[in-house]
Amino acid sequence: MDCEFVQFEKDENVGILTINRPKALNALNIQLMDELDATLDNIAADAEIYALIITGVGKGFMAGADIATMKPMDYEQGKAYGIKGCALFQKIEDLDIPVIAAVNGFALGGGNELMLSCDVAIASEKAKFGQPEVGLGITPGFAGTQRLPRIVGPRVAKELIYSGRVFGAAEAEKIGLINKVVPPEELMETAKSMARSFAKMAPFAVKYAKKAINEGLQTDIDHAVKIENDYFGKCFSTNDQEEGMGAFLEKRKATFTNK
Ligand code: CAA
Fold first, then answer.
1. How far apart are CA 199 and CA 100, in angstroms?
2. Which of 51, 80, 93, 172 has the highest CB neighbour count under 10 A?
3. Which residue among 25, 32, 84, 146 is best mutated to probe the pocket of ligand 1, counting the most ligand atoms within 8 A of its Cβ?
């Protein structure tokens, strides 16, 4: 698929996906959704990408779902749009590799929800966050009512969603919404450095850790621990477990092969 609004490049084992619709602050219209979906499928099929960075061009990371697209919708259309957006962001959460949001600017509504579907987030000092939907007469619709309370806790999430207020990167870090704030000129290098630190680990171990965390968070602790037991066991059928432990015992650096 030729993409107008999504750029993708590889830097060794790190993929960099850049949302490029700056005239609308990268607002998520149907075309951008379809381009993102196709790009994510390509990324999922590429066994040489060990970590992914998602960022945006210009002042916006993503200023939300496209308000002009949503304005004329009725119940069925609104619901279908929500289902489409949630499936798209679930695809990000379900990628086997770690995904880093490098938040360059406005991450509002669907843009904040995009960031929430990533594993970790680094933000520029210029970034702004919020779920302003109630001011538009709607609820967050791309899983913000579900992922935000799971990440920052229900009390903080409710205050943010009910007020719709926009807040800065320092507050986002303080409430645990993001991992780190950096000056704008250091954003991409910090994200790449973090991505490389993930990419040099045993890929199966990172993938199984991600699955154990994400699947375990959806269930009770007894079942969650069983999920971990299974992924922990699976590591012992990989070459990289033999290599990682062998390298430690032989006092040399491990060379992982993703097998
Ligand atoms: N949808 C469609 N277009 C958008 C947009 C959006 N979410 N956000 C910005 N734009 C467009 C503006 O309409 C404007 O277009 P024109 O130049 O053609 O007029 C362009 O992007 C630049 O925006 P502004 O002139 O408004 O820029 P600003 O710097 O003055 O303000 C802003 C920036 C505070 C982010 C402001 O654009 C804004 O409030 N945007 C809307 C944010 C929002 O409410 N997002 C939630 C959307 S609903 C949602 O996401 C639902 C969901 O959960 C799925």
1. 12
2. 51
3. 25
Q: Which residues line ligand 1 (CB under 6 A)?
A: 24-25, 27, 63-68, 85, 106, 108-110, 113, 132-133, 136, 140-142, 144
Rounded to two decimals, the pTM is 0.97
- Can you tell me the distance from the alpha carbon of 66 to that of 54, in angstroms, rounded to the nearest whole number? 19
Torsion angle of alpha carbons 114, 116, 117, 118, nearest 10°? 100
In tens, the pLDDT along 43-53 reads: 999 999 999 99
Q: How far is the CA of 248 from the centre of ligand 1 (A)?
A: 52
In terms of DSSP H, where are the helices of the chain? 30-45, 67-70, 75-94, 110-117, 144-152, 154-163, 169-174, 187-199, 203-216, 221-235, 239-249
List of the chain residues with pLDDT < 70: none
Collapsed DSSP state (helix, strand, coil) of residue 8: strand
Output the pLDDT for position 155: 98
How many helices and strands in the chain, by DSSP H and E?
11, 10
Nearest CA to ligand 1 atom 19: 24
For residue 19, give the 3-state DSSP assignment.
strand
What local confidence, expressed as pLDDT, does residue 96 receive?
96
Specify the pLDDT at position 1: 82
Tell me how far the alpha carbon of residue 257 lies from the centroid of ligand 1, in angstroms.
Answer: 44
User: Whats the size of the chain, residue-wise?
Assistant: 259
Q: Are 37 and 3 in contact (CB under 8 A)?
A: no
Give the DSSP letter of residue 251. Answer: T
Rounded CA-CA distance 44/29 in Å is 22
